[in-house]
Amino acid sequence: MTTLAQQGTQPTGFPTRFREGEARSRRLGRPLRLLGRIAEVDEDLMERIGRAFSERDEAGARLAEAIRMRAGTPGKVTMTQLRTALEHGAAAVESPPPALADFFAQVEATPDWVDWDLVDEGGHVFTRLGQNAADVLLQLSLISGYRFGGPPDLLVATGGLTGSTTRRRLAETQHWAVSLRKPGALRPPEPGSVSGEAWRLTVHVRAMHALVNAGFEERWDTSRWGLPINQADQAATLGLFDGVLIIGCRALGVPISRQDARALMHLWKYVGWLMGVDEDFLVDNEWERHRINYHVLLSQAEISEAGPQLAQAAVDVQRDRSYPGWPGSLERVRGWYEKERVLSMLTVFLGTRSMHELGLPTRPPWAHAYLLPLNLLRHRVLGRTARGRDRLERRGERNADSLLASYFGRESAAVGNLPE
Q1: What is the dihedral angle through the alpha carbons of 268, 272, 273, 274, rounded to the nearest 10 degrees?
Q2: What is the pLDDT of residue 414?
């Protein structure tokens, strides 16, 4: 099929990345198109995605502007005020500046559509997925996204996920993802109680994204990429963390029922709302997410130089992780094994062409060969009973603790510091 770019009818008013790699994206998206039962491209949705490249989180932008004001300027938001509001709500801040009050009035006003029981159930499902979820989030939610220019270029520009910072940034992402699984962790602060850890971390990340936007927008090539952190890329990221998580775990042999998928989607819908993702891209229907993801995929650029840098760093860091419980002399062996395991799984998930584009060596599919029967036993046999599901959940909790200890090592577990 001829793309709009090939016809010379690329829409005006959008960044040049928009639909630049559409022919390649159609090839990569064939399985998603079939899975989502997509008969034809929805041009209205494509136009909405195109506009979203130039849209930001406005409440976050106003907060970032107030944080960046000089000390003593009326309306200035201090880090102390922000941290207090994150933990106890804006009401705990004495005479809160307008930008702070407006931002927290938004994130503390939980939408009527949020079903807390379903959110907590999504956390239980997430936990039961265990190592499978960790594998998919690293390989499909992060590394597969490096095949398209834009966000990877920003990560390189900010120094995130490259060089010596790679292990720490991946650890912070894992820490945030693990926090989402705990019952009650996404509750906002209420009088007399502190906010849940996952709520606090998610809003913290939103503020951090707003500060990155404010710091880079003037020097960023917006005609090429759109805003540094924009609504289209946020929608893409959300889709990689909900719909792709479900697809990836199923590809590893884990059965995810319609009920469990709905719970996971609802969890991530609320997380997306907290992150400031536009409501046009918030869904808790798995098939609608696949449809949106396919169109977001079509909107992407070709791969840029940043992609291989990030992908190779994310793979190489597996050898740099610490592995508690392993003798020091054998930690290197375990690190080598983990790197080879990731390469084996990536070869199956991404295919040889994408592996070559990212500068990654291919490996035989030995990891999938043992994971598929293992997951068949754990999830399709043992997981059919309530007792079996409890065991899977406990195993998932232990896996999460082990994963965080491996990535953080002796460092404290926290999510990126907000600049003063």
Answers
A1: 100
A2: 65
Instruction: Note the Cα 62 to chain centre separation in Å.
Output: 24
One-letter amino acid for residue 137 of the chain: L
pTM for the complete prediction? 0.93
Residues of the chain with pLDDT under 70: 1-12, 160-164, 412-420
Answer whether 295's CB lies under 8 Å from 283's CB: no
Closest C-alpha to 24, from 154, 147, 138: 147
* Predicted pLDDT of residue 159: 80
pLDDT at site 326: 85
